Amino acid sequence: GPVRGYLRATAFGSRCAWFMGSPGAQSVWISDGTAAGTVRVLEPEDLEEGEELLGTAPAILGANTPAPVMVFGTQILRGAAFLWRSDGTRSGTSRVTLPVRSWVNTFTALGDRALVLGIEQTAGGAFWTYLTVWDGITAPQLLMTQPGYLLGMTSEVFDGRAWFGSPADFALVSDGTAAGTRVIPRTRYGGVQQVTAFVGVAANALWMTAGSTLFRVDPGALDPVPAGTLPFALNPGEVVAL
Questions:
Q1: For tag attachment on the chain, is the N or C end more exposed, with fewer CB atoms within 10 Å?
Q2: What's the pLDDT tens digit per position in 161-192?
Q3: Interval 102-117: pLDDT, tens
Q4: CB 210 within 8 A of CB 195
Q5: Whole-angstrom distance between the N-terminal and C-terminal Cα of the chain?
């Protein structure tokens, strides 16, 4: 949801970026650890009336390059949603409008692009999920529209693709293109369970769970395959990667 008087910090190359403030007085800061290198790249006056920063963690594009870019979101309540990019300077911070009016659920960095997962609830109460890709330069592109809601979503990047899991209706996998974006129905996992946790990457494979069932994804594979049964079910908050 919107940032309401708390901080959200993230590594931004050799610097740190964080959100700060309450509705109507929000800002984004960048710091290299010195007073001279601590600046605001987004001021409260840069936001429209009613526009608020989303508490969703930003994505860092080109994180391992000399010139990373931070992508984050804002939204006007029951109105338009926006994507922002920043190179760490005020003049290099700008925004575009999302192609669909939806609440941003998460950002996932896939190399030099951001995958943006958005949720919309219609007037009739139905949920829709949207996946958008943005390189921070050209117009955002809608990759997928899907009925349902990725409740309690978790994500992991492996083998050039981003995996989105949820104990709700379905899971998603995307390489950042429309052709490479697929919905994985919960029936793929042999029951009512959906992906409940990503264990992480180990032994050149991505590991995930659906309840107590362990799955693995090998490089080049399209789908997870069963890899055993755990003595207990895993939820997202119960996994610590070492």
A1: C
A2: 998 877 666 778 899 999 999 887 766 555 55
A3: 888 788 899 899 999 8
A4: yes
A5: 29
Q: Are 50 and 76 in contact (CB under 8 A)?
A: yes
What type of residue sits at position 5?
A: G
Specify whether the CB–CB gap between 136 and 124 falls below 8 A. Answer: no
Tokens at 114, concatenated: 């951001």
Degrees (nearest 5) of the Cα angle 74, 31, 25?
Answer: 40
Residue type, 179: A
DSSP string, 96-108: EE-SS--EEEEEE
Instruction: Give the Cα separation of 43 and 155 in Å (integer).
Output: 30
C-alpha pair distances (Å), 117 with each of 96, 114, 155: 16, 10, 11
Question: What's phi and psi for 71, nearest 5 deg?
Answer: -120, 130
More confident residue, 24 or 61: 61
H or E element that contains 118? strand 113-121
Buried b (16+ CB within 10 A) or exposed e, 8-46: beeebbebebbbbbebeebbbbbbeeeeeeeeebbeeeb
How far out from the chain centre does Cα 132 lie?
10
Cα–Cα distance for residue pair 7/117, rounded to 1 Å: 22
Residue type, 106: T
